[in-house]
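[Discussion] Sanity-checking designs against the backbone

I'm trying to build intuition for which residues belong where. Below is a structure token string of 409 positions. I'd appreciate it if someone posts a full sequence so I can compare it with mine line by line.
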């Protein structure tokens, strides 16, 4: 686990550095912010279209082999981009194609590396391992973004891409030496003979048949669209009604990052999170969002930002734990594939919809309305369950568990 965490940290550093450099590169080539957004959408689109297929591949093939091959392919894409940039041959269409290829590989790499990570720990350590993965991801994002500026100034854009390729090579080299926990072998031996039958369609059918997973998707969707885009809503609030400048928004962003790391550490103490816990955390975050929306001064908003980020981080860890422990081991790749598809959908649709809400209701109104809608949806869901007399959602427990490690773009 120590080697795997170190490999994921290196990979996250490279990924976020490359993503930052990619945005700057598109701006340099086109001078268009719209083109920059398009490159990000092109990279995300395969997750929407092929998430189910990627999850099915992960359930069918040996996990270590799948993860190693996907990491090696991501390295090849990074090195190819570095060569094209260095030779002055990179054009916008070629960059878009490479972004799409990266997104396509990530549909397999994401669930493969996530599920490989849980093969390293016993069941009782799953939430802690997922929380550790969240900390690694947050630290890698912060440091990678900061390193991008240093990298461009010292080794140039091509060097930054090459460095990201080296980070993927490092992960690829570590994977063969990972020692799997005995529970992983036991779970593989206990899987049905036709465990991979049905492919992505079977994964979707299983997902829709589980009220736990459907409820989780509803909570995550409404929260993501109306409550998680703080980079947009808080940016407009700080620079608008609260009359803060770029420095004030930078402070808000830093506090959000600190709160996310603190929340991941706190989440490491979770043992058996449930959908009920995720719902309560989402409702708490919505209430804090409403309070942030009516904050009369910048200082009050700064006080609210850290607990907002902590609640979001704990909720994310609890969600990931339920996702990766509720399904049986032989279905987990496909469940993660379904989740990638639906989460990509609301990830792409959320910012434009929220932008329209900000335009129509104003900065404060968007935060308040979003918080009220989230609270209402969660309250209605709990009331519906109670009237149906449904039993309490059982804790997510399964023979083998998987921490969510995020290694690829």
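Best answer:
Here's mine. Compare freely.
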């Amino acid at each position: 686990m120590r080697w795997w965490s170190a490999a994921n940290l290196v990979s996250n550093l490279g990924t976020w550095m490359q993503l930052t450099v990619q945005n700057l590169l598109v701006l340099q080539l086109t001078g268009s912010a719209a083109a920059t957004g398009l490159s990000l959408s092109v990279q995300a689109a395969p997750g929407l279209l092929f998430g189910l297929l990627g999850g099915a591949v992960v359930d069918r093939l040996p996990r270590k082999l799948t993860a190693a091959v996907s990491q090696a392919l991501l390295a090849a894409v990074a090195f190819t981009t570095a060569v094209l940039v260095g030779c002055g041959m990179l054009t916008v269409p070629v960059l878009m194609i490479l972004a799409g290829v990266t997104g396509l590989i990530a549909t397999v790499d994401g669930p493969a590396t996530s599920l490989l990570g849980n093969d390293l720990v016993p069941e009782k350590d799953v939430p802690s391992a997922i929380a550790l993965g969240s900390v690694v991801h947050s630290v890698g994002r912060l440091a990678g973004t900061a390193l991008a500026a240093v990298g461009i100034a010292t080794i140039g854009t091509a060097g930054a891409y090459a460095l990201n390729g080296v980070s993927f090579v490092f992960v690829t080299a570590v994977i063969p030496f990972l020692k799997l926990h005995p529970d992983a072998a036991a779970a593989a031996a206990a899987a049905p003979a036709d465990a991979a039958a049905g492919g992505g369609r079977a994964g979707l059918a299983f997902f829709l048949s589980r009220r736990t997973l459907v409820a989780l998707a509803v909570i995550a969707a409404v929260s993501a669209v109306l409550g998680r885009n703080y980079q947009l809503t808080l940016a407009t609030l700080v620079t608008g009604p609260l009359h803060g400048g770029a420095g004030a928004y930078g402070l808000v962003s830093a506090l959000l990052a600190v709160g996310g790391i603190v929340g991941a550490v706190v989440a490491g103490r979770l043992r058996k999170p449930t959908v009920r816990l995720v719902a309560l955390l989402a409702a708490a975050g919505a209430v804090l969002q409403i309070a942030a929306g009516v904050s009369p001064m910048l200082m009050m908003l700064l006080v609210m930002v850290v607990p907002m980020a902590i609640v979001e981080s704990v909720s994310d860890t609890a969600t990931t734990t339920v996702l990766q422990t509720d399904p049986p081991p032989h279905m987990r790749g496909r469940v993660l594939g379904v989740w990638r598809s639906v989460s990509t959908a609301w990830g792409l649709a959320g910012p434009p919809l929220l932008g329209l809400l900000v335009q129509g209701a104003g900065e404060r109104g968007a935060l308040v309305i979003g918080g009220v809608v989230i609270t209402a949806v969660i309250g209605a869901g709990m009331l519906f369950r109670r009237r149906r007399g449904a039993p309490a959602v059982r804790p997510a427990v399964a023979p083998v568990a998987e921490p969510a490690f995020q290694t690829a773009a």
